[in-house]
Write the structure tokens for this entry.
Amino acid sequence: MVDAVVLLCVFPGKETLVKEEVVKIDQVKSCRITFGEYDLVTEVQTDKIKSLGSLITKRIRSIDGITKTVTLIISESIENNAG
């Protein structure tokens, strides 16, 4: 499996509309609206790296309102579910 975080910049006022479209994609595990340099933080999971490329270029970047994406591929993770 390939896990990644995709940081999205969108046109002002489009945050909620973009989020609603992003969460319709099966490989998207979460999507949060944020303040700061990036407008949304999205967690995705695919079966292989090539699928991640297609997900980003063909599915996510094609959503109207997105101006920029930055993808961070997760190499190691520790889940802390306490409290």
User: Anything to note?
Assistant: The mean pLDDT is 95.
